[in-house]
Design a protein that fits this description.
Strand content: under 5%
Radius of gyration: 19 Å
Helix content: over 70%
Shape: elongated
Largest sheet: none
Number of helices: 9
Length: 206
Protein backbone atom coordinates (compact mmCIF):
# COMPACT_ATOMS: atom_id res chain seq x y z
CA UNK A 1 0.00 0.00 0.00
CA UNK A 2 2.85 2.38 0.82
CA UNK A 3 4.45 1.84 -2.59
CA UNK A 4 1.09 2.33 -4.33
CA UNK A 5 0.40 5.53 -2.40
CA UNK A 6 3.85 6.86 -3.28
CA UNK A 7 3.29 6.11 -6.96
CA UNK A 8 -0.13 7.78 -6.93
CA UNK A 9 1.24 10.97 -5.37
CA UNK A 10 4.38 11.00 -7.53
CA UNK A 11 2.65 10.79 -10.91
CA UNK A 12 0.38 13.85 -10.46
CA UNK A 13 3.33 15.80 -9.04
CA UNK A 14 5.51 14.93 -12.03
CA UNK A 15 2.66 15.72 -14.43
CA UNK A 16 2.26 19.17 -12.89
CA UNK A 17 6.01 19.67 -12.94
CA UNK A 18 6.17 18.79 -16.63
CA UNK A 19 3.18 20.96 -17.54
CA UNK A 20 4.96 23.96 -16.04
CA UNK A 21 8.57 23.00 -16.67
CA UNK A 22 8.68 22.35 -20.41
CA UNK A 23 6.92 25.56 -21.51
CA UNK A 24 9.12 27.51 -19.10
CA UNK A 25 12.27 25.86 -20.44
CA UNK A 26 11.18 26.59 -24.02
CA UNK A 27 10.45 30.24 -23.28
CA UNK A 28 13.68 30.86 -21.36
CA UNK A 29 15.89 29.20 -23.99
CA UNK A 30 14.10 31.13 -26.74
CA UNK A 31 14.60 34.43 -24.91
CA UNK A 32 18.19 33.47 -24.11
CA UNK A 33 18.91 32.94 -27.80
CA UNK A 34 17.53 36.39 -28.63
CA UNK A 35 18.93 38.23 -25.61
CA UNK A 36 22.09 36.34 -24.60
CA UNK A 37 22.11 37.19 -20.90
CA UNK A 38 20.39 34.01 -19.72
CA UNK A 39 22.69 30.99 -19.10
CA UNK A 40 20.68 28.68 -21.35
CA UNK A 41 23.22 25.86 -21.08
CA UNK A 42 22.78 25.76 -17.31
CA UNK A 43 18.99 25.74 -17.78
CA UNK A 44 19.15 22.71 -20.07
CA UNK A 45 21.50 20.87 -17.71
CA UNK A 46 19.23 21.60 -14.73
CA UNK A 47 16.16 20.42 -16.64
CA UNK A 48 18.02 17.23 -17.58
CA UNK A 49 18.84 16.56 -13.91
CA UNK A 50 15.17 16.84 -12.95
CA UNK A 51 14.10 14.67 -15.89
CA UNK A 52 16.73 12.06 -14.97
CA UNK A 53 15.13 11.62 -11.54
CA UNK A 54 11.58 11.40 -12.87
CA UNK A 55 9.74 8.12 -13.39
CA UNK A 56 7.74 9.37 -16.39
CA UNK A 57 8.95 7.92 -19.71
CA UNK A 58 10.54 10.14 -22.36
CA UNK A 59 11.29 12.95 -19.88
CA UNK A 60 14.86 13.33 -21.15
CA UNK A 61 13.69 13.17 -24.75
CA UNK A 62 11.20 15.96 -24.09
CA UNK A 63 13.94 18.11 -22.55
CA UNK A 64 16.07 17.55 -25.66
CA UNK A 65 13.25 18.38 -28.11
CA UNK A 66 12.15 21.43 -26.11
CA UNK A 67 15.65 22.90 -25.72
CA UNK A 68 16.86 22.26 -29.27
CA UNK A 69 13.65 23.59 -30.84
CA UNK A 70 13.70 26.77 -28.74
CA UNK A 71 17.39 27.37 -29.48
CA UNK A 72 16.85 26.82 -33.21
CA UNK A 73 13.88 29.17 -33.40
CA UNK A 74 15.67 31.80 -31.32
CA UNK A 75 18.79 31.70 -33.49
CA UNK A 76 16.76 31.79 -36.71
CA UNK A 77 14.75 34.77 -35.48
CA UNK A 78 17.85 36.66 -34.38
CA UNK A 79 19.57 36.00 -37.71
CA UNK A 80 16.48 37.18 -39.59
CA UNK A 81 16.41 40.36 -37.52
CA UNK A 82 20.13 40.82 -38.15
CA UNK A 83 19.62 40.49 -41.90
CA UNK A 84 16.91 43.15 -41.76
CA UNK A 85 19.33 45.38 -39.89
CA UNK A 86 22.06 44.82 -42.51
CA UNK A 87 19.69 45.94 -45.28
CA UNK A 88 18.47 48.97 -43.33
CA UNK A 89 20.30 52.30 -43.63
CA UNK A 90 19.99 52.90 -39.91
CA UNK A 91 20.70 49.33 -38.86
CA UNK A 92 18.73 47.92 -35.97
CA UNK A 93 19.07 47.43 -32.24
CA UNK A 94 19.25 43.67 -32.80
CA UNK A 95 22.20 44.04 -35.17
CA UNK A 96 23.91 46.38 -32.73
CA UNK A 97 23.32 43.86 -29.94
CA UNK A 98 25.07 41.18 -31.99
CA UNK A 99 27.95 43.54 -32.81
CA UNK A 100 28.38 44.57 -29.19
CA UNK A 101 28.89 40.94 -28.17
CA UNK A 102 31.27 40.13 -31.00
CA UNK A 103 34.67 41.73 -30.22
CA UNK A 104 36.75 42.64 -33.27
CA UNK A 105 39.36 39.98 -32.61
CA UNK A 106 36.75 37.23 -32.22
CA UNK A 107 34.91 38.45 -35.31
CA UNK A 108 38.07 38.38 -37.41
CA UNK A 109 38.81 34.83 -36.28
CA UNK A 110 35.23 33.79 -37.02
CA UNK A 111 35.36 35.30 -40.51
CA UNK A 112 38.62 33.52 -41.32
CA UNK A 113 37.37 30.16 -40.06
CA UNK A 114 34.03 30.60 -41.79
CA UNK A 115 35.78 31.28 -45.11
CA UNK A 116 37.90 28.15 -44.68
CA UNK A 117 35.43 25.64 -43.24
CA UNK A 118 31.96 26.99 -43.97
CA UNK A 119 29.01 25.39 -42.19
CA UNK A 120 31.24 23.29 -39.88
CA UNK A 121 32.24 26.48 -38.04
CA UNK A 122 28.60 27.37 -37.50
CA UNK A 123 27.96 23.94 -35.99
CA UNK A 124 30.90 24.23 -33.61
CA UNK A 125 30.14 27.83 -32.66
CA UNK A 126 27.25 26.81 -30.39
CA UNK A 127 29.50 24.43 -28.47
CA UNK A 128 32.13 27.10 -27.77
CA UNK A 129 31.20 29.51 -24.96
CA UNK A 130 30.58 32.99 -26.40
CA UNK A 131 31.26 31.63 -29.89
CA UNK A 132 27.74 31.81 -31.29
CA UNK A 133 27.35 35.55 -31.88
CA UNK A 134 30.74 36.25 -33.54
CA UNK A 135 30.08 33.44 -36.03
CA UNK A 136 26.50 34.63 -36.58
CA UNK A 137 27.79 38.15 -37.30
CA UNK A 138 30.39 36.68 -39.65
CA UNK A 139 27.58 34.91 -41.51
CA UNK A 140 25.66 38.19 -41.73
CA UNK A 141 28.68 40.06 -43.08
CA UNK A 142 29.30 37.25 -45.57
CA UNK A 143 25.67 37.70 -46.67
CA UNK A 144 24.68 34.11 -46.09
CA UNK A 145 21.06 33.61 -47.16
CA UNK A 146 18.59 32.59 -44.48
CA UNK A 147 18.26 29.09 -45.90
CA UNK A 148 21.99 28.40 -45.69
CA UNK A 149 22.19 29.65 -42.12
CA UNK A 150 19.20 27.54 -41.05
CA UNK A 151 20.70 24.38 -42.58
CA UNK A 152 23.91 24.86 -40.62
CA UNK A 153 22.22 26.01 -37.44
CA UNK A 154 19.97 22.95 -37.11
CA UNK A 155 22.77 20.45 -36.32
CA UNK A 156 24.42 23.14 -34.18
CA UNK A 157 21.36 23.40 -31.93
CA UNK A 158 20.96 19.61 -31.75
CA UNK A 159 24.61 19.17 -30.74
CA UNK A 160 24.30 21.97 -28.18
CA UNK A 161 21.21 20.43 -26.57
CA UNK A 162 22.83 16.97 -26.41
CA UNK A 163 26.02 18.35 -24.85
CA UNK A 164 24.35 20.25 -22.02
CA UNK A 165 21.84 17.48 -21.45
CA UNK A 166 24.70 15.01 -20.97
CA UNK A 167 26.18 17.36 -18.38
CA UNK A 168 22.83 17.30 -16.56
CA UNK A 169 22.60 13.51 -16.75
CA UNK A 170 26.10 13.27 -15.30
CA UNK A 171 25.13 15.56 -12.43
CA UNK A 172 21.91 13.64 -11.84
CA UNK A 173 23.65 10.28 -11.79
CA UNK A 174 26.17 11.40 -9.17
CA UNK A 175 23.62 12.46 -6.54
CA UNK A 176 20.45 10.96 -5.13
CA UNK A 177 18.71 14.29 -4.61
CA UNK A 178 17.75 16.28 -7.72
CA UNK A 179 18.75 19.62 -6.17
CA UNK A 180 22.28 18.33 -5.57
CA UNK A 181 22.54 17.29 -9.19
CA UNK A 182 21.23 20.68 -10.32
CA UNK A 183 23.89 22.48 -8.26
CA UNK A 184 26.61 20.23 -9.69
CA UNK A 185 25.37 20.65 -13.27
CA UNK A 186 25.08 24.43 -12.99
CA UNK A 187 28.54 24.68 -11.43
CA UNK A 188 30.03 22.56 -14.22
CA UNK A 189 28.38 24.59 -16.99
CA UNK A 190 29.54 27.86 -15.42
CA UNK A 191 33.10 26.53 -15.21
CA UNK A 192 32.99 25.43 -18.85
CA UNK A 193 31.64 28.85 -19.85
CA UNK A 194 34.26 30.73 -17.86
CA UNK A 195 37.37 28.84 -18.98
CA UNK A 196 37.70 30.45 -22.46
CA UNK A 197 37.37 34.02 -21.16
CA UNK A 198 39.86 33.26 -18.37
CA UNK A 199 42.30 31.85 -20.89
CA UNK A 200 41.96 34.94 -23.10
CA UNK A 201 42.68 37.20 -20.12
CA UNK A 202 45.78 35.20 -19.27
CA UNK A 203 46.99 35.46 -22.85
CA UNK A 204 46.31 39.21 -22.89
CA UNK A 205 48.20 39.67 -19.62
CA UNK A 206 51.19 37.88 -21.07
Amino acid sequence: MTVLATAVTTVPYESTQQAIGYPTLFLLVLIGALVPVIPTGALVSSAAVVAFHQTAPFSLALVFVTASTAAFLGDATLYWLGRRGMRSKNGSRWLEAIRSRAPEERLTQAQEKLAEHGVAVLVLSRLVPAGRLPVMLACLLAEWPMRRFVRGNLPACLAWAVTYQLIGILGGSLFDEPWEGVVAAVALTLVISGVPSLWRRIRSAR
